[in-house]
Design a protein that fits this description.
176 residues, 6 helices, 12% strand
């Protein structure tokens, strides 16, 4: 999913980096959040080291993840494990595509653009309501929609999710 989405953001004029993270080797079992945060911190540190050379704004970045990658991105947005623990800037927006770590919900601090799949067999269907209730309580901006499409929709072409990349950019820009 990340390649066409990265290309869509690049076509809008943004610099895009795609990271990798270590898996557990067991489907449905998430990696230790400390390990996930280490992976992202290493990647963002590399980007920050080259920010001037590459003319990058490291103060206003978006982190996007799909499914397990969304859970990885949530780990980076969790101050206990992610950006704050490494003394780095928080993302301006966390884009979560069909995935969330339930443990992260109570620690949410970063504005969220999220799309859940209506009939997603991999995630608890109560999560969107619980998540948005916490975001409302904390006054954290969000754009959360439940879309009628399958897990793994990528760009969402031909589905209710189509156009989410431009919607995410608009949400991000509305916060600047």
């Amino acid at each position: 999913e990340s390649l066409p989405v990265g290309e869509a953001f690049r076509e809008m004029g943004y610099t895009v980096f795609m990271g990798t993270y270590r898996l557990t080797g067991v489907f449905g079992q998430f990696q230790d959040p400390v390990i996930l945060a280490e992976d992202i911190a290493r990647e963002i540190s590399f980007i920050n080291e080259h920010a001037e050379e590459w003319n990058l704004d490291t103060e206003n970045y978006l982190v996007v993840g799909f499914s397990a990658g969304s859970c990885t991105a949530a780990t980076w947005c969790d101050p206990r494990y992610g950006y704050e623990a490494y003394g780095m800037n928080a993302p301006a927006v966390y884009c979560s595509m069909y995935g969330i770590v339930e443990d992260y919900i109570d620690y949410a601090e970063v504005p969220v653009f999220i799309r859940f799949c209506k009939n997603d067999e991999y995630f608890d269907h109560d999560l969107p309501d619980r998540y948005t209730a916490v975001l409302d309580e904390k006054g954290i901006p969000y754009d959360c929609r439940i879309v009628d499409c399958l897990h793994g929709f990528g760009l969402g072409t031909g589905t209710e999710a189509e156009g989410w990349v431009k919607e995410a950019e608009s949400f991000w820009r509305s916060l600047c």
